[in-house]
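Model it.
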Amino acid sequence: MDSPLGKLCIAFLAVANILLRAQTLVLSLDSAERTSATLYSNAAILRHHWTVQIPPGSSMVRIEQLPEMVAPLSLGLHWQEPAVRTLTMRLVPPVENAPELLRTYVGRAVSLRRRDGIVEGELVLPPTSLVGGVEPCYVGAVLRTRSGELLVSPCGELVLPPSDVAIARTPVLSAEVSVQNAVKSALELRYQCDGIQWQASYDATLLDDDKLRLEGVVHILNNTHTSFRCSELRLIAGSVNFRTPKSTVFADVATSAMRTVEAQASLAPLEESFDEYHLYTLPFGATLAANSTTVLLLRPRVTLPVKRRLIARGRFYGHTSAADDGSVEVPVSSIVEFVNAPPDSQPLPAGLLRVWRQSAGGSLELVGQDEISHTALGERVAVEVGRAFDVRVRRRDVESRRLSERVTEYTVEYSLQSSRSQRTELSVLETFAGNWEIISSTIPYSKRSAQQAEFTATLPPKGTATFRYTVRQSW
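Modeled.
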């Protein structure tokens, strides 16, 4: 290469390399002019926007800092100018460990520094694992020496030459684009990220026995190692079908960056019906920090009428041991009910609802929590906060008669006891199979459905009550 022709070739290659690098447009998520996110219960759709000057001919667009949980099949580049064509796209995975780094050096010259000297050669196969020690061993690696010998799983200190490309610590999208004439175009990168999700939660404070104060927040979980500065945030409430790979694993949430806002209607999301779901648009942006949970306002504070109920489900009383008289204890559930009919008319996305009450000493204490499903405007919400402490219920089968091969008649007795200082109302739910008819009952009852009847009993202060019913069943 010392000849004039050789020097000319070297100069030509250098210029070509400079031109090639000049034709590569490097973008990053941090350099995006605008980022928006639409969040679902199990994933997110991210959109990043840039304005890019495209030179004539073919160019490479390199977008860095992509999250590690990007769904590869969802990646798409969208150019505002129709003249720009995307020819190919390639998602390059990040280099996270030494074997992955050595994989990028396959076919290149490397040096192996050992106690007996330095061995130079070409890396034919990368290692599958490393074994540490004074001289680490590269299990599975194959090194071809200058003399042609093959060293399998060599041991020593592997010395690598400088890399001619940047070593990516996050996924990188490389795209080849083509345009006939130079053009300036807006570019949108859109993809699905499986490491971001949201969940609603609510705080219901019992003001007295017939009113509660309800407010809600949204928890945005970013389980990726990437932070997103979002100028627009949207939430989709509903059961959206996402088919994600079974191998997707969420990272542990290491920290919790709590951002709270005052319960003012001007800061609440704007809600609208959207396809089969509900769409909430937050009127402000937010930074979704890596490995953190961000908390934002969802449901402005509102006061609603509430009803307290005690319910004993008689047919499903578990495997409680029977007493000497054959009776079994039935747990009594404490239920908080309200109708979602606030003045500002907003449905409630599914989430966790916590119920609070102020003690005589003035402290606000949690009395129970339960999951609620998606609740449209005007629908009833029933939350089981726990078991009643001062009300006991026992159930006993008194008599059973077989009237025919397909007809049975039996009598059930309930014994109720209250230690409360006020009168207590209690509902007992019984579930029946087949065709059934209640022949007699000592207290009022109603048929709730084709399989269930509800008996309503009233207990005096610190008193007891007993009722019986007889039912006839046929198959």
